[in-house]
Design goal:
By secondary structure, the chain is α/β, with parallel strands linked by helices. The protein contains seven helices and eleven strands. A nine-stranded mixed β-sheet has the order 6-5-4-3-7-1-8-11-10, with helices on both faces. A two-stranded antiparallel ribbon has the order 2-9. Helix 1 runs parallel beside helix 3. The termini are far apart.
Length: 248
């Protein structure tokens, strides 16, 4: 059985290979390579309840997450994750370069005291509404954040194709999406993913699910995965796959 460092290095190598294979496709679409990476319970819950953080992944799976962060230029979360988990969005458990933190925040609710606003090397890029409060935008920018308006109406969901194209033109070629539920569902609904790495924690919690709407097309096609690899990281099962459509 591989040791943990060897398993993490194997995972990083696979992601690099997949990114190289998809390079031409991403260049043609002018968008970054997108990897969804998240942990869930056996019943598909991300956490016990919306807005309440929970640690589903074990230490070994967390090392994997940090190894994957190194292989991506940017890491994306929604404002719900920032408010609930206060993530650092850095690389800490292994050696490597911090990815650029990105936040989807249409109402500019990112707290000034949040960890991401005190990132050790990369102030966050916050994507928001054109109509977001100018005073709040000014405050965030004076604290170092780069606020980028992309949508015109308050509360409107940020259009992912426009977001990805904007990131491409800012030099981002590889993107890791870590959550939360609304963001993960949006990428699945839009079929805007190139790989998914799902940590399956062997517990049932009956909590807050990350799929919050039907994703089946009128032709009864649903987003699925071609499972290419799986590994046990202590008690957690990590599934690796590339996107496909499945008939339901």
């Amino acid at each position: 059985m591989q040791t943990l460092p060897a398993m993490v290095e194997t995972a990083r190598k696979r992601i690099r290979e997949w990114q190289e294979e998809g390079k031409a496709h991403c260049e043609a679409q002018q968008r970054p390579w997108v990897t969804l990476a998240f942990a869930q319970s056996l019943d598909g819950s991300l956490t016990f309840a919306q807005g309440q953080p929970s640690a589903l992944s074990g230490e070994a799976a967390l090392h994997l997450t940090h190894g994957l962060r190194v292989e991506h230029q940017a890491i994306l979360v929604g404002i719900g994750t920032v408010l609930a988990d206060n993530p650092r969005l850095t690389v800490r458990l292994i050696k490597g370069t911090h990815p650029q933190p990105l936040i989807l925040d249409t109402q500019l609710r990112t707290p000034l005291e949040s960890h991401v606003m005190h990132h050790p090397s990369n102030p966050p890029w916050i994507f928001t509404s054109i109509r977001a409060a100018e005073r709040r935008r000014h405050i965030l920018e004076t604290r170092g954040a780069h606020v980028i308006p992309l949508v015109s109406e308050p509360g409107e969901r940020i259009p992912l194709p426009r977001l990805l194209n904007d990131l491409w033109h800012r030099g981002i070629r590889t993107l890791m999406v870590e959550g939360g539920a609304t963001v993960l569902t949006a990428f699945l609904e839009a079929r805007l993913l190139d790989a998914a790495i799902i940590t399956l924690a062997p517990v049932w919690i009956g909590g807050y699910h990350y799929i919050n709407k039907l994703l089946i097309s009128p032709e009864r096609q649903a987003p699925g995965l071609m499972l290419l690899y799986h590994e046990l990281y202590d008690h957690d099962l990590v599934l690796w796959g590339r996107p496909t459509e499945r008939q339901i």
